[in-house]
Amino acid sequence: MLEPMKISVSAEALASPSAVIAAEGGRASGLADAARAALAPIRRLDARFFQIVFLGTLLLFGALVRDFALQPEQVALTFAAGLAAQAFWIKALGLKNVGYLSAFVTCLGTSILVRADSLWVHPLLAALAMSAKFTIRIRGKHLYNPANLAVILAVAVVPGAWASPGQWGSDVLIGLWFVCLGVTVTTSAKRLDIAWAFLGSYVALLTARMLILGQPHAVLIHQLSSGGLLLFTFFMISDPMTTPNRRPLRLAYAFLVAALAFSWQFFLFQPNGPVWALFLLTPLVPLIDWLWPGQKHVWQSQAKRPVEPGASC
Question: What is the pLDDT of residues 187-211, one digit of tens each?
Answer without folding.
Answer: 665 667 898 899 999 999 999 999 9
